[in-house]
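Subject: Interface between my chains keeps coming out wrong

I've been trying for a while to get a sensible model of this assembly. When I model each chain on its own everything looks fine, but I need the whole thing in one frame so I can look at the contacts. Pasting all components below, labels as-is. Any help appreciated, I'm running out of ideas.
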Amino acid sequence: MHELNIVVDSAKVAFEQAATPAELENAKALFLGKSGCITELMKGLSALGVDQKKSRGAAINQAKQAIELALNERRQKLADAQMQAQLQAEALDVTLPGRKRGQGGLHPVSLTLERIEAIFGSMGFDVAQGPEIESDWFNFTALNTPEDHPARSMHDTFYVEGGSVTAPNLLRTHTSPMQIRYAVQHVKRHRATASAGQVDEVLFSGVMPEIRVIAPGRTYRVDSDATHSPMFHQCEGLWVGENISFKDLKFVFTDFCRTFFESDDLVLRFRPSFFPFTEPSAEIDIQFQRGPLAGRWLEVAGSGQVHPNVIRNMGLEPEKYIGFAFGMGPDRLTMLRYGVNDLRLFFDGDIRFLSQFI
Ligand code: PHE
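Reply #2:
Try treating it as a single job with all components included. I did that and got this:
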């Protein structure tokens, strides 16, 4: 019997030493397998007499059961340990901050465009969009810009294939072509709604609503440095009626700037200038009275009274219709509003820069 105890004890030790389920199964084979100790001991029974066989058999069985018990205990222990390790490894720390899904937002220049549209919208201006690939007619000729104007040179303008010598296609260099496009449509629309005999009356007696529109969008020039990008934004403004003067331009633009920059004491200056499509023309400068830019004159727009030739190209009589136009740079306004000093940051697509505006 002593010998059986030794077998049981050594099985227990072997099981205890098995560190993994696989090792445990190997250890089990040594004792309970086909050629394991217990099997060998059983084989030895055949040589014994009936009585001895009985008691010896019972004892071996007991030993076998003890070994199986130890085996199962060890199996359970190893399984528990494995479960513990797994739980430990996959533990959730509920105090960690959650992983947020990235939140998108509007580009700072888009925010400015929305703001411009809202402010002019509140003053009764329509908002119009037009093509970025323009014809020479809308971009230059209809705007009274002569053949030899420097803006028409290959050097300053991106010409694109598909146009002809007489009507080349180009990437619009400003939003001013929208003055013509919008006005022509406006006039057509109101002509169409008037009855035949009324046409002249509708167009020339003040029945036709005034043209009051802004046209924001992308524009292109061969230019690239910290304050110029080959692609940039402009927003055109146009107000044409029977009695729209520079006084209205001053009022509208002053009101716009003060609202846009939320600064009631902002000062404007209209500096004489030249554009082929306006006469007289003025650059509009603004001056903050407070903040880091206080006291400096900052150019924000070109403007002027719409040239009679342009009025004519809109399909209107210059003797009857008069108005103003302006073209401003939303990129510049965005830089001033947020204190950004390099225009290129807007178009680099660096999320670290852009996410500051969300
Ligand atoms: N189109 C002009 C420019 O790009 C700006 C402008 C628009 C000036 C309307 C006068 C009137 O510089």
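Reply #3:
Confirming on my end. The pocket of phenylalanine is lined by residues 174, 176, 275, 278, 281, 302-304, 325-327 (CB under 6 Å).
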